Amino acid sequence: MKVIVRDNYDEVSKEASRLVEEKIRENDELVLGLATGATPLGLYENLIDSYKTRGISYENVKTINLDEYLGLDKNHPASYHAFMFETFFKHIDIELNNTYIPDGVPASAEEECLRYEAVIDHVGPVDLQILGIGTNGHIGFNEPGTDPNSLTHVVELNASTIENNAHFFQSIDEVPTHAITIGIQSILKSDQVILLASGKSKAKAVKTLLESERNVNPDFPASYLWTHDDVTIIVDKDAYQLV
Ligand code: GLP
Description:
Bound molecules: 2-amino-2-deoxy-6-O-phosphono-alpha-D-glucopyranose
Order of helices and strands: EHEHEEHEHEEHEHEHE
CATH architecture: 3-Layer(aba) Sandwich
Number of strands: 10
Largest sheet: 7 strands, parallel
Radius of gyration: 17 Å
Strand content: 15-25%
Distance between the termini: 19 Å
CATH topology: Rossmann fold
Number of helices: 7
Number of domains: 1
Helix content: 25-40%
């Protein structure tokens, strides 16, 4: 696991966008694994900027998102479909047909999980997976206790996750209780992983992650990243407090 420490959130976002741009320059048919949440917003802004000013094109790029809330239609403003469209996709030249996000209102959630895992295998494998981290160590929506062999599945969200994500909704009561997330095994299928973390609220999770090399365990799902051979974490000084 490679660790890059930068002064602040803007520098973390710059470093992340530099790495993504380099990958797209190397391979214009890149398959990018994308995350939602507040952390990647700066990365997406920089990528929009490099598309507009330096012509980095997404015409042939494909994206596969980590997760979606169960029960939210893609037109719901707090759905991850809407989040990705508003914060990234509508500003670049990507074909929406090449962007994949689990369906939040499937006829059968079980079938949707199987369908989405097949997307990961057939559209992917993901060349570069972007991750954030939950304060409890979740990646995607893989909450503590998740089986390391898990593929795309339905999860019940932890109370802390619901609380942390409530700011994207009008009130905490509107946050869905369940989601569809790609599994830990699905994440580990990616060729390369970049995890971003910023701010004091993530310091404990980053410390636990860095200390979990010899203690890879389901109570801290991000620890499974130690079993992958190409993971870079990019953190700011606030999130990197090891004492
Ligand atoms: C959400 C997402 C994760 C994200 C995490 C951290 O629950 N499902 O993919 O990494 O929260 O979010 P934030 O970046 O807002 O702290």
